[in-house]
Amino acid sequence: PTPVYLDCDTGVDDALALALLLASPEADLVGVGTVSGNTGAEQAAANTLALLALAGRAGVPVAVGAGNASVPVPHIHGANGLGDVLLPASGESPAAESAAELLIGLSHTHAGRLHVVAVGPLTNLATALELDGTLPERVASVTVMGGAARSPGNITAVAEANIGNDPEAARRVFAAPWDITLVPLDVTLVNRLTEDDRRRLEESGRPVARTLGLILNRYFDFYVSVYGLRCAALHDPLAAALAIGCVEPLLAPRVSVTIDDTHGPGRGQTICDLRGQWRDYPEQPGVRSRVVLSTTQPLAPILMERLLA
Ligand code: BDR
Ligand code: CA
Predict the structure, then answer these.
(1) Where do the Inosine/uridine-preferring nucleoside hydrolase domain residues begin and end (predicted)?
(2) Please, what is the Cα angle at 151 between 216 and 263, to 5 degrees?
């Protein structure tokens, strides 16, 4: 299995990504770092530890990472990040090191094999690059849920939350010399769970699946304001699924991605040069970023099967 470091702001859909990685034979989750986003970085670590304990995987190290300018979103993820469902505290403490230090350490332990899945603001990855500029040489791939290639943003007209909450960090992460794949709103918003899926999770005898069903309740309420029906966009689990290959990209052109970190109306925009997908468009030398625009199959049935197995 692929060694995976997950960087997240746990978070309802982050919890789905974590559960998918734990349930997937392709992945060996070797560490989790948390960042402020859906909730504060410390609360995100407590949430992650509680979910790991529930899954019987309390041994996975969890490190608290950076704060940033993001504002918690209780109307989407609840005041505690998990839809205000109270999980039993795990009894475990976060690692003594920071998330950036944990990532650097894991890049040495799993040199050349480590896959990084980043589903929150990119603050920890940027800090890790600042601490150790050689990090990209030891990382096999970076998969980021974030941005919007052709779709509108979700926190401003052009900015998606993970990028828009720390555009300076995102700019540095996309400028670094590693193979990086962006999984933007364009593809995550069309991969959804239905109310029927949620109910099946809630009615499951499996503790993780049941808890996810409960946690998803408030998130489903929020999506009524987006789609007019109770459902959930599978942002973070889609990035996790693509990183470990249980879902394949159909269209993922290699194109340059520039992050707008100016203070104008474009702040947080992911400027994806999609001319790169045109036939015969001259290859842009040195471009290492891919943008996933569609997948060969929908994620929901695969996710449900793995969570209920
Ligand atoms: C992204 O922002 C967070 O709210 C979600 O967990 C996801 O990572 C979607 O814009
Ligand atoms: Ca997230």
Answers:
(1) 4-282
(2) 100
